[in-house]
Design brief:
disordered N terminus
Length: 418
């Protein structure tokens, strides 16, 4: 009975009446087959619709979330350019409600125990866990790498057996996009695995002996917290813009093809690039970590969801980097190790061709500005069954397969560079 009462109380907290209500919201899919249709979708993206996948090329599906109030208007608009649609999600609100119930039930069952790596957590809980791990494990230290507009510290964990001026660094960041909850859950699990299994797990021991692992579990704390309290599908940070719109997309805010394709100058757009490169604290924090470890950073990994992709530069253009053959070789090894875990299929290649053009990204910046050869962007589970509302019971399998892929990557880098 006590567990049931706790669960009811938590449901009431999560289902706050002031939250954005997504009841009846659909996600539709269209596939542009002509240049006219593609141009139309690019223009439509500027009109504040929530594009879950951006228009990039002919024949590539484009997913758009639409409210019940705007659905008929959107369909009639699409019909004008002969764009037929299918419905991928009939009611996003129901998925969010189910996610909340799953979180609440697991919290109630896990009450009073240690940190639960198989559930989703608010930022204050995540920050507290990182600081506690740093206080209790000599391999771990925590630091604040930036302060957000709303005053939250961006916490980073450094896992090291003893750093030096020449020891390689691997940097991992999660949740640059606020609504991608499985990414901080994955980063936290990996962090704990390394911290607690060093010395007993030969593979982990060798990898931490080789390099310092720097992990930022939530790169966008303001946006992430907002997804818990107000709007589950918020993507950007929470800086105010001119007019009534809030937020900049931190992963369009880097000085790497800034303001180019796949980023918007419309402050109300989900892909708004901001007034200038590095105008956001979130992008600046990532830049500063790389700058502080310039010459030592051998891998810079940004972890997103969803779509099951492992991607390399470039995102801002379709041309391939001169180092692409080596990038691809290590991607292939990494994805094979990930897939071997549970059979999960990932596509891999350069960002622009694998998903869409995206200028101003952290991955391009790490490679172009800091010369990080193994700069990758991952999109974790799934391919659209749950989308951003991946159930808590898929956190562990997602984290395990991702870590297996990243360990394979790290081993290959060590073998190549040692």
């Amino acid at each position: 009975m006590k567990i049931i009462l706790i669960a009811f109380a938590l449901v009431a907290t999560l289902a706050n009446a002031s939250k954005v209500d997504y009841t009846g919201h659909k996600v539709i899919r269209v596939v542009p087959q002509t240049e006219e249709q593609l141009r139309f979708l690019l223009e439509l993206q500027e009109q504040t619709y929530d594009f879950w996948s951006s228009p990039s090329s002919l024949g590539k599906p484009v997913d758009i979330r639409v409210s019940p109030q705007r659905y008929q208007y959107l369909i009639s608009t699409l019909n004008k350019v002969a764009l037929n649609h299918t419905i991928r999600f009939f009611d996003i609100g129901k998925l969010i409600e189910e996610e909340e119930r799953n979180i609440v039930l697991r919290r109630a069952l896990h009450s009073g125990r240690a940190f639960d790596f198989e559930n989703y957590h608010q930022y204050s809980e995540i920050e507290a866990f990182v600081n506690e791990l740093a206080a209790t494990n000599p391999l771990v230290s925590s630091s604040i790498i930036g302060t957000t507009y709303e005053g939250r510290g961006i916490v980073m964990a450094t896992l090291s057996t003893g750093s030096s001026a020449t020891k390689p660094v691997m940097y991992f960041e999660c949740a640059m996009h606020a609504r991608e909850w499985v990414t901080p859950a994955t980063c936290l699990w990996m962090m704990n695995e390394i911290a607690t299994k060093y010395g007993t797990d030969a593979e982990i021991t060798a990898l931490l002996d080789y390099a310092d692992w720097l992990i930022t579990p939530v790169s966008n704390p303001d946006g992430y917290e907002y997804t818990w309290t107000k709007d589950r599908l918020w993507r950007k940070n929470r800086t105010p813009n001119e007019g009534l719109c809030y937020g900049t997309d931190p992963n369009r805010n880097f000085d790497a093809g800034f303001g180019g394709p796949g980023a918007s100058g419309n402050a109300c757009s989900d892909t708004y690039h901001g007034p200038s490169a590095f105008s956001t604290e979130e992008a600046s924090a990532f830049r500063d970590v790389l700058a502080a470890n310039s010459g030592r950073t051998v891998a810079a990994i940004t972890i997103h969801s969803f779509s099951q992709l492992w991607m390399s530069p470039y995102g801002y253009q379709n041309a391939l980097p001169t180092d692409y053959a080596e990038m691809f070789r290590v991607m292939e090894i990494s994805v094979n190790a990930l897939t071997a875990t549970y059979g999960t299929q990932f596509k891999y290649g350069n960002i622009a061709d694998t998903i869409y053009l995206a200028s101003g990204s952290s991955t391009d910046y790490a490679y172009m500005a800091e010369g990080v050869l193994y700069a990758y962007a991952l999109e974790l589970r799934d391919t659209g069954v749950y989308g951003f509302e991946l159930p808590p019971d898929q956190i562990l399998v997602t984290a395990i397969e991702t870590f297996n892929g990243l360990k394979a990557m790290a081993k290959e880098i060590a073998a190549k560079l040692q």
